[in-house]
């Protein structure tokens, strides 16, 4: 054991070290002395035992060591001997000088309950000190689990105990766990608690059964247990104990009834359910699962019945026999599924009921001559048909048989005298034509329960007698045929029907001869009833011949009837329409309102009926295409305007053709010329509006100064212009020629040097309209000789491509002058504003997009200005707008066409000439034509490359090639080369002398787009020309050749009616060409004729207009004359005619701008001033001419460009006033005299102000761009 002089070290050695009094040698000597004293001093001992409660705060006084010294001994210093692990040094604080013992921290008895150490005085007296730590109740009992589950079988004996986990308390003695309580859940005091103290002082716990447990009454308990200690107050802890009462098999199954009864028929089928027994068992799991079985030792050893072990359903296992056994007794057991099952019995009584199992038998004998079931339709009521005998092998009531009769619609009855023999007889009059057979059913039924019956069904045939004459389907027939049919041609087929059978129903046909009815023109097939022509028909002799047809049957006696056939002869189409005149001339005023009818052409046709009906259409003229400005009434021939006609913006006359087509396809053409008479609908307009010229003071009177020019697109007197000066705009120095617009010097201007004389001139046409904007002429008077700027060339020639971007430099003009301040302007020649000139450099640039096709060249007058007053020089600039290949060829009038070509057409014949145009010029607009078709087509047809003539160069054969699709490609000469394709469909007309012939080779019909599917629109008709071997015509069958456009249409095979199969959309396709075929015969005898149907799809207003740009941006210069156009809006509409005719307007009327309702050109309504408003936003509406109309909207954004139309103005005073600046004499040079400020409302360079002084004694300093200038 190691002992340490703890007290000495702490009380003496540490202070010495701290004070620095001793050195290591002295320390070693003291330790040795102390050890010697301890060893050699005589042993004097004392004891001290102290008590202290745990959990006292640190510093609590425990006791005094001196109390333990022997009597008479004192000490002033203690040395404490401490063993390692005793806790004395860490838990106690011992004062070695006084011997007072204190706690160094809070003591915990549960960690350490005793402290022992020895205190030694300097004289060697020892005191053994013992400190006992007393327990306090600082711990509660604690269950290891707060909730536990426990299972106890039911029927456990009372007093049986089950150990539970005890609660643990760290305290000791009376303060540890002292007991347990059941606080809650102990229903019926089913449990008690017993405890026992273990050697480790733990109080153990047992759960003891205190009452009989029955799971069927209560299956679970939830006990709340509490443990408590012996403290005051007590400390406690709780635990929940979930007790499950486990089932034991203590209950037997119980049936819901002790005896069951059932009655079943002996014919019940095996597998049928009879009844269900039911038992319950209150146990759970296997103990409560009930299983059923039949006790075979006590019942049903032959297994007539079986039972489902789980459901208790008793089922018949094999057939029963009432005669062998009428009652069955079963013992059914119900047992549970426990290891030692409980069993219960029930009794089932099943009674078997007898049934009727023998049916009657019947014997039927028919009473006709041959013993078959038949009877004449002439049999009278009461006549016998059959005899029936019945028997039944059963006895008793089951042998009683009743016989009944069903069917026959009441025409037959059943009779008997002895209920053994029965007779069937006729009950009502029979009519074979009404019904030729009857189905009868005889039933024999016994009296059993259920009754059995036998039945027999048979059909009674009713034998015919000749009691009906033939009857025609209709009493009167009507047929329409052309008068030119060949003898033997089919007219129609009559049909008579005879209700009788056999020879009684066989029919022969004949024509009743009547000389006055032209019956000898026709013959009839006696078997088929087909009527054909016997000789040539004559419409003029009798257009409506009528014949009587007789139908006779083969009965005895023979019966007959008649019908009338009315034949309507149809005139052939052998006359073309004839116009009243071949040429029509009409004159109308321009701007005639759209829809105004100007002329009615009339054609007549000598044919009658549909062949005499005429329709009119417009065609191209001698040198023009079909005019879109006119429409013609299809039936009336009225020609009306479709748009407003402007003679000044378009042609002065129109020529076109009118085609009249009759119902058979024959046509004729008349020529129409429409001249537009001018009206005074245009005011004169000056261009240019502003003129600037220079004049020398030395000029003699009579000198021509300048010529102003106004334009008026009207003609004649309306376009003749006279000029005059406006009031206040004249000058006494000049005169104006009212006819030519030339301004001349009237007197000397010698005194007007260095001044500008303005002259304002108006223009008026012969109709009295005056120009809205007057021309302003500024005449600059120069002292002495005029020295105008001189251009390097008198004329300039530039070329620019039409596809250049805006702002592209076209060329540069240069002028020289003694004055260096030269500025350039375009004075005339460009009313459209396509070009601008840089005022400083003379560079000419494009300002708008160019289009060679709209304008191929311009001649501009460019003016150079210099000096003050200014002098002006001019030059001519010729600008050629070079064409690019930007327009592909366009075929006229459409990109496709079709024609019908007879099979015998001679080779070399020109069959078609294609027409195309190209908007480009030169080689870009030169067209060549090529065929691009299958090789067979190119061997049959050729095209002349320059003229577009298509020739037949091979033979035609309908059987090998009934159709050709020719593709013509038109190419221009540009780079890159542009092209277009034209499709010509050539249908071959077969030459078949014996085949059917249509009444016309080409049918023309117009139908509206959107026509409903299955709508009929045209009936074609063909005539037979060849008889069959029996001498009459076989019927015709119509069909469409399955090529080209046939997919969209159908034809009724028997009637020739064409109908619509697919939806029609004119904007997708506006013309269809069909080949309709009529066939007769079959196989190698089949002959076919053909005709062409040309279908024009007329327009409906089913498309909205579409603006090319819904947002369009435009620019216009300020100060342009009212009425100046500066931009267009364009729109398109896929519809045609009035439906596609567009008109433009602003969404809201505007006082600054107007829009041409026909062209979409936007022009100024008044003169614009950028300084007042620099931009505009206008809503636009484009509307078609449909009914109701459709429309679209867009927006125009207009920017006003600046003109240099404002003079700078000094801000110090009003314009023209003198600005006075004072300066003292003798002032030195360079002194600032003042600052001038000016403003110019123009923008850009037009608003930049330059300053200069006319005197030489002062200068203007600072940058010239600044609006503020300093004067020195």
From TrEMBL:
Entry protein name: Protocadherin-16
Source taxon at top rank: Eukaryota
Alphabetically ordered keywords of this record: Calcium, Cell adhesion, Cell membrane, Disulfide bond, EGF-like domain, Glycoprotein, Membrane, Repeat, Signal, Transmembrane, Transmembrane helix
GO biological process: cell migration; homophilic cell adhesion via plasma membrane adhesion molecules; mitral valve morphogenesis
InterPro entries referenced in this protein's UniProt entry, alphabetically: Cadherin-like_dom, Cadherin-like_sf, Cadherin_CS, Protocadherin/Cadherin-CA
Main localization, broad class: membrane
Organism this protein belongs to: Cyclopterus lumpus
Family matches, as Gene3D superfamilies: Cadherins
Location(s), subcellular: Cell membrane
GO CC term (a single one): plasma membrane
Keyword DNA repair in annotation: no
GO MF annotation list: calcium ion binding
The protein's assembly and partners: Heterophilic interaction with FAT4; this interaction affects their respective protein levels.
Ranges of residues in domain Cadherin: 44-143, 144-255, 256-362, 375-472, 473-579, 580-686, 687-791, 792-891, 893-998, 999-1107, 1108-1210
Bilayer topology annotation: Single-pass type I membrane protein
């Amino acid at each position: 054991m190691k002992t340490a002089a703890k007290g000495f070290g702490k009380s003496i050695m540490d202070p010495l070290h701290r004070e620095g009094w001793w050195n290591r040698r002295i320390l070693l000597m003291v330790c040795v002395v102390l050890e010697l004293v301890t060893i050699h001093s005589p042993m004097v001992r004392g004891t001290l035992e102290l008590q202290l409660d745990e959990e006292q705060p640190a510093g609590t006084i425990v006791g005094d060591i001196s109390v333990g010294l022997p009597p008479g001994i004192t000490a002033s210093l203690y040395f404490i001997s401490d063993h390692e692990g005793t806790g004395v040094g860490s838990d106690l604080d011992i004062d070695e000088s006084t011997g007072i013992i204190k706690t160094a921290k809070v003591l915990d008895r549960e960690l350490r309950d005793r402290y022992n150490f020895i205190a030694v005085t300097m004289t060697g007296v020892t005191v053994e000190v013992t400190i006992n730590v007393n327990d306090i109740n600082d711990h509660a009992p604690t269950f290891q689990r707060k909730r536990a589950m426990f299972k106890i079988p039911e029927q456990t004996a009372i007093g049986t105990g089950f150990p539970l986990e005890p609660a643990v308390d760290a305290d000791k003695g009376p303060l540890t766990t002292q007991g347990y309580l059941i606080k809650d859940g102990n229903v019926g005091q089913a449990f008690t608690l017993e405890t026992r103290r273990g050697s480790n002082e733990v109080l153990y716990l047992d759960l003891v059964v205190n009452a009989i447990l029955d799971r069927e009454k209560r299956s679970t308990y939830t006990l709340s247990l509490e443990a408590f200690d012996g403290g005051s107050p007590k400390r406690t802890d709780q635990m929940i104990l979930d007790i499950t009462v486990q089932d034991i098999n203590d209950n037997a199954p119980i049936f819901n009834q002790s005896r069951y009864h059932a009655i079943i028929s002996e014919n019940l089928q095996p597998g049928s359910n009879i009844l269900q027994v039911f038992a319950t068992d209150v146990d759970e799991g296997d103990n409560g699962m009930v299983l059923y079985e039949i006790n075979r030792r006590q019942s049903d050893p032959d297994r007539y019945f079986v039972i489902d072990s789980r459901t208790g359903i008793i089922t018949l296992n094999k057939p029963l026999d009432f005669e062998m056994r009428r009652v069955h007794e079963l013992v059914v057991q119900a047992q549970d599924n426990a290891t030692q099952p409980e069993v219960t019995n029930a009794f089932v009584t099943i009674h078997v009921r007898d049934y009727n199992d023998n049916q009657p038998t019947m014997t039927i004998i028919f009473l006709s001559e041959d013993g078959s079931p038949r009877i004449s339709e002439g049999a009278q009521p009461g006549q016998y048909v059959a005899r029936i005998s019945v028997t039944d092998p059963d006895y008793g009531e089951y042998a009683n048989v009743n016989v009944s009769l069903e069917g026959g619609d009441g025409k037959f009855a059943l009779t008997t005298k002895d209920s053994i023999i029965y007779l069937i007889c006729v009950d009502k009059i029979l009519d074979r034509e009404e019904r030729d057979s009857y189905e009868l059913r005889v039933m024999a039924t016994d009296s059993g329960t259920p009754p059995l019956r036998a039945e027999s069904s048979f059909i009674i045939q009713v034998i015919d007698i000749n009691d009906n004459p033939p009857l025609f389907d209709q009493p009167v027939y009507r047929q329409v045929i052309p008068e030119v049919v060949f003898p033997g041609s089919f007219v129609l087929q009559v049909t008579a029907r005879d209700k009788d059978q056999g020879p009684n129903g066989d029919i022969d046909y004949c024509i009743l001869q009547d000389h006055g009815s032209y019956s000898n023109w026709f013959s009839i097939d006696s078997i088929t009833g087909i009527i054909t022509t016997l000789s040539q028909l004559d419409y003029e002799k009798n257009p409506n011949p009528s014949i009587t047809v007789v139908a006779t049957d083969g009965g005895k006696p023979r019966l007959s009837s008649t019908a009338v056939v009315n034949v309507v002869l149809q005139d052939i189409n052998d006359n073309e329409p004839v116009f009243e005149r071949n040429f029509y001339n009409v004159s109308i005023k321009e701007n005639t309102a759209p829809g105004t009818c100007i002329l009615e052409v009339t054609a007549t046709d000598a044919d009658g009926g549909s062949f005499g009906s005429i329709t009119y259409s417009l065609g191209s003229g001698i040198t023009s295409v079909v005019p879109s400005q006119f429409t013609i009434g299809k039936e009336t021939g009225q020609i009306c305007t479709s748009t407003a006609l402007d003679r000044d913006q378009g042609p002065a006359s129109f020529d076109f053709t009118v085609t009249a087509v009759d119902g058979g396809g024959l046509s004729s053409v008349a020529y129409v010329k429409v001249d537009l008479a001018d009206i005074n609908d245009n005011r004169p307009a000056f261009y240019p509006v502003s003129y600037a010229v220079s004049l020398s003071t030395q000029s003699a009177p009579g000198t021509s100064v300048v010529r102003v020019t106004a334009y008026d697109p009207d003609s004649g007197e309306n376009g003749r212009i006279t000029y005059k000066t406006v009031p206040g705009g004249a000058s006494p120095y000049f005169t104006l020629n009212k006819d030519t617009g030339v301004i001349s010097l009237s007197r000397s201007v010698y005194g007007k040097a260095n001044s500008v004389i303005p002259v304002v001139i108006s223009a008026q046409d012969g109709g009295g309209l005056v120009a809205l904007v007057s021309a302003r002429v500024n005449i600059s008077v120069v002292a002495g000789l005029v020295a105008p700027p001189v251009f390097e060339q008198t004329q300039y020639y530039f070329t620019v491509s039409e596809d250049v971007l805006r702002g592209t430099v076209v060329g540069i003009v240069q002028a020289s002058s003694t004055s260096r301040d030269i500025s350039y302007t375009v004075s005339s020649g460009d009313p459209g504003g396509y070009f601008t000139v840089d005022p400083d450099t003379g560079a000419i640039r494009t300002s708008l997009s160019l289009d060679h096709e709209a304008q191929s060249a311009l001649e501009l007058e460019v003016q150079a200005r210099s000096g003050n007053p200014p002098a002006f020089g001019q030059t001519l600039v010729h600008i050629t707008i070079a064409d690019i290949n930007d327009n592909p060829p366009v075929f006229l009038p459409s990109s496709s066409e079709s024609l019908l070509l007879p099979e015998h057409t001679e080779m070399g014949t020109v069959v078609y000439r294609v027409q195309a145009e190209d908007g480009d010029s030169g080689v870009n607009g030169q067209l060549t034509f090529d065929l691009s078709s299958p090789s067979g087509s190119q061997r049959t047809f050729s095209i002349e490359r320059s003229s577009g003539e298509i020739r037949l160069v091979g033979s035609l054969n309908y059987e090998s090639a009934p159709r050709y699709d020719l593709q013509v490609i038109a190419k221009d000469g540009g780079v890159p080369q542009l092209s277009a394709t034209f499709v010509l469909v050539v249908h071959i007309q077969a030459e078949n002398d014996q085949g059917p012939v249509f009444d016309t080779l080409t049918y023309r019909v117009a139908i509206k787009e959107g026509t409903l599917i299955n709508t009929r629109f045209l009936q074609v008709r063909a005539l037979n020309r060849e008889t069959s071997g029996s001498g009459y015509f076989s019927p015709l069958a119509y069909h469409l050749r399955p090529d080209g456009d046939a997919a969209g249409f159908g034809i009724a095979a028997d009637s020739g009616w064409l109908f619509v199969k697919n939806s029609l959309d004119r904007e997708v396709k506006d013309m269809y060409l069909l080949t309709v075929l009529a066939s007769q015969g079959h196989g190698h005898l089949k002959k076919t004729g053909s005709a062409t149907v040309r279908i024009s799809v007329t327009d409906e207003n089913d498309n909205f207009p579409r603006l090319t740009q819904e947002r369009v941006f435009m620019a216009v210069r300020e100060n342009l004359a009212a009425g100046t156009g500066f931009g267009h809006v364009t729109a398109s509409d896929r519809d045609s005619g009035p439906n596609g005719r567009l008109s433009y307007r602003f969404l809201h009327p505007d006082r600054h701008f107007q829009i041409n309702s026909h062209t979409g050109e936007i022009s100024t309504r008044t003169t614009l001033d950028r300084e007042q408003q620099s931009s505009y936003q206008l809503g636009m509406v484009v509307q078609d001419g449909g009914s109701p109309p459709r429309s679209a909207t867009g927006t125009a954004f207009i920017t006003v460009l600046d003109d240099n139309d404002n003079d700078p103005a000094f801000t110090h005073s009003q314009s023209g006033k003198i600005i006075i600046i004072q300066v003292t004499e003798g002032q030195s040079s360079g002194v600032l005299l003042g600052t001038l400020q000016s403003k110019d409302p123009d923008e850009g360079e037009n608003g930049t102000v330059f300053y200069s002084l006319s005197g030489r004694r002062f200068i203007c300093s600072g940058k010239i761009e600044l609006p503020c200038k300093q004067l020195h």
